[in-house]
Structure formats: C-alpha cells, structure tokens
Amino acid sequence: MSLGSHIAELRRKHEHLSEKVETAQRSPGIDDLEVAALKKQKLRLKEEIERLTHA
Questions:
Q1: For residue 29, what pLDDT is reported?
Q2: What are the residue ranges in the chain where pLDDT is below 50?
Q3: Which residues of 28-45 are buried (b: 16+ CB within 10 A; e: fewer)?
C-alpha cells in the first residue's frame, strides 16, 4: 500500500468515526463513555494523518 492510499484510508476511517460520533450524540441514552472512546479513536487517526502528511 502506498503512503497516499494509506493516508486516504485513514481519512475515510476518520470521516466514518465523525459520522458515528454525531449519530451517537443525537441518540438519547447513549453512553458518554462510548462517545468518548469514539472521539479518542478519531483523535488518534487525526494525529496519525498529520504525522504521515508532515513526515
């Protein structure tokens, strides 16, 4: 896998997590810990994308 396609895949995963977070936040009774875990995953992906694009 080339670096560009790897970064593109990470961006797709980040976007998917963004959608999951938004949906979870709109759902009544959603566990705050679940939302926090999704946000942490999203942040890790963002940091990895930044690291790879500025390497």
A1: 84
A2: none
A3: eeeeeeeeeebbeebeeb
